[in-house]
Amino acid sequence: MPQGLTDVLEEWKCLEGEYEQLQETHRLYIQKLDEISNLQTKCTSSISRQRKRLKEVSQLVKNTGPSEEDAKTLDEVKEKIKARPNAFFEMEAFLPKKNGLYLSLVLGNVNVTLLSKQSKFAYKDEYEKFKLYLTVLLLLFSFICYFFVSYRFLDAIFNFLLVWYYCTLTIRESILITNGSRIKGWWVFHHYVSAFLSGVMLTWPDGNLYKSFRNQFLAYSLYQSFVQCLQCYYQSGCLYRLRALGERHNMDLTVEGFQSWMWKGLTFLLPFLFFGHFWQLFNSLSLFRMAQLPDCKEWQVMMCGLSFLILFMGNFFTTVAVVRQKLKTRKQKSKTL
Questions:
Q1: Residue 290: enclosing H or E segment and its boundaries?
Q2: Is residue 174 classed exposed, middle or buried when 0-12, 13-18 and 19+ CB atoms within 10 A define those classes?
Q3: Which single residue of 33, 35, 55, 122 has CA 20 to 30 Å from 224?
Q4: Buried b (16+ CB within 10 A) or exposed e, 133-160
């Protein structure tokens, strides 16, 4: 037998052995996937039953009039009942769940639950980097458009980038929420408003009204990007320290606003935030005045004015509520001390 053919047969025999091992490994992998799927279904149904029975027990506790001796035991049961929903939340973060309306419309019914802490944290970390890199890019782009160039097509590229950025943020945040992130309320909704505002700005035709508002909008975008860069930097460091102390959840995110856990070392950001909020109000009032001009025919003027007004109200009242709650908590702590 020729030497070349012998070498080929030896290599093929070795390859066949590796292929058989691969087949066995893949068979085990599929088997484990089936086992995991069955366990997921079992856990999900068990959590549903536990929630139902927990409501029944809570109602039973409310209707129970304990004696002084049993009051302490009943208080312990109440504390355990209060803690149980958080335990369910932690469990469900690792179980497949039905997508919300937004994710269902965008992605369909595909499962977006990440099954390990490492993959969840890696996705969250990648989200934070995406936010920071795009914010820096938007900062540079708005700086160039404001100081150096004045072309409508560059403005359109800038606004398209804003639309893409905010739409991508909403999708990524929805995936992170599915995987256990606790971002909610206004900090989620205001990205939808910002995406709508950017889309309307993108469709605003070139003209005297657009040109009169252009520099004001670019200056506002430049300022917002600068403040968001500051927030990303300081919030990331603050969250890292708090997670190391066990005071924050691993899936907590940076936000474009003030949170109660930011008090130490971040109070100096409040004037920047409030200035940005009132700039949104100023933009809204400017656009409303513009909409009253006789030569104003563009519907984009009123829509942008309403969007800026919604952003101002949401940002301002949410920030005030957080600061008020934080001051109240600090007073309570000082009284106990």
A1: helix 269-291
A2: buried
A3: 122
A4: ebbeebbebbeebbeeeeeeeebeebbe
Whether 293 contacts 261, CB under 8 Å: no
Instruction: Give CA–CA dist 40/295, Å, rounded.
Output: 62
User: Distance (Å, rounded) from C-alpha 160 to C-alpha 151?
Assistant: 14
pLDDT band at 265 (very low <50, low <70, confident <90, very high): very low
- Asked if the model's pLDDT at residue 262 lies above 60, the reply is no
Q: Where are the beta strands (DSSP E) in 124-265?
A: none
Half-sphere exposure of 52 (CA within 13 A, CB side): 6
- State the CB neighbour count (10 A cutoff) for residue 213: 20
Give the sign of the dihedral formed by CA 222, CA 226, CA 231, CA 236: positive
CA 274 to chain centre: 22
Distance, CA of 99 to CA of 177 (rounded, Å): 10
Number of Cβ atoms within 10 Å of the Cβ of 114: 20
Count of other CB atoms within 10 angstroms of residue 65 = 7
- Is 277:316 a contact under the CB 8 Å cutoff? yes
For residue 94, the SS3 value is coil
